[in-house]
Amino acid sequence: MSLPVISVAQMREWEQSTWATGQTEAEVIRQVGRAVAQRALQMTQPGDLILLLAGKGHNGDDVRAIPPHLADRRYELLDIVSPADDIAQLKETLARNPTLIVDGLFGIGLNRPLDAGWVEFINALNTAHHPVLAVDVPSGLNADTGANFSAAVRADVTLTVGAPKQGLLRTSAVEFVGRLEIAPDVGLVPCPFSSELKWITPSDFAGLPPRRAPQAHKSAFGHLLIVAGSLGYHGAAVLATRAAQRAQPGLVTVHPQEEAYHPIAAQLQSAMVHPWRDDLTFAPTHCTAALIGPGLAARNLSNEMQIFTRKFWRDPQFPVVVDASALDWLQLGTFPKNVIRVMTPHPGEAARLLKSTPQHVQEDRVKALREISGRFGNAWVVLKGQHTLIGRSEGEILVNSSGNPHLAQGGSGDALAGFIAGLLAQPEWQANPARTLAYAVWQHGAAADELQSRRANWMVEDLVDEIGNVRA
User: For the whole model, what pTM was predicted?
Assistant: First the structure.
């Protein structure tokens, strides 16, 4: 199940609730140590050297619980009491090129600026540029605010205990947290808290995709209309269409601008391709969802394209997904009650919708999402970026847990928009749009993670082949 995003105070209360049941701190520390060791094994190979850095508190105790679970890895454990006294030993060990450093210097209890000795110690660790696995929180980072206490360890992976801490999701924390992962099962009682932010877990998708009846036929799985592709931007339409097909709707019809028709039609086999016409009569009356936007970036687009986009946002009873350049054509206001409307902006597009700046959007991504949704009729908003957010002007906001920086390639967003629309074209996927959107976004990131685990030079065409194929 999805996990609440909690504060440090809530984490402390959760721990106290656990101790009240008779569970011991020592047992939880043992289980945390085992979980961190398992992640360290995944990040290394037999015979590799792992440097374990343990501070004085419970975060250090977690690290000291790791060695029994390190199997065939070499390790060196440094108990750091005085950074000024221990920095020489740190540098000596770093010179031996450890494959991985496990950071357990400070935990979530740190609440004061670090002195000069600690700043120097952490800077020496960061400038060595070795991969770092942080336990619970990168040392020196405020787990409530995402700010740092004069310095903070730059982790490649942060394995936080129980549930995500709210500060770890702040944009200011991104460069220190790296990839955020959760160790949920470490002996704590079930989390007693809820929150507006919910961390997506693969278990949220049990039973997806839904089973298909043996006698099913293509008309049972919807007809997706895609309006995409213009001169110089035909690839976006192709990527969006192929990703939509990976969702397996019954039919897909693509309407590119006439200048882009031939390169798009030549690359698509099972999708139907027809040139766009300004008379607005081309759209099939029996479509069950629409995607508008990928590759509609040519300067010579007619005003009718904008009129069509606004009409389709306003009128149809079926789901409509708007992406990329088409987001700029939407008008403020509402649409029919209880219909599905989805916007998929990246921070730059979100800034344009809010007449703001990307920096302002990134400072408070939750606020930006809610404002966009509120301005555009309480539409669903998929605010892309690290930890893509999914939500509306009120209610829960889902935080994606999958993906990696290699998704930062042209065409990645087109693939996501296509996959979302391909799912929403199907009646069974329309019943719970929040879950459908979460599944689509998670699959998009999980496909990138799977590709990255296999090869370092994958591209978006590979992503389109993989999306929807990862088992939740």
Answer: 0.96
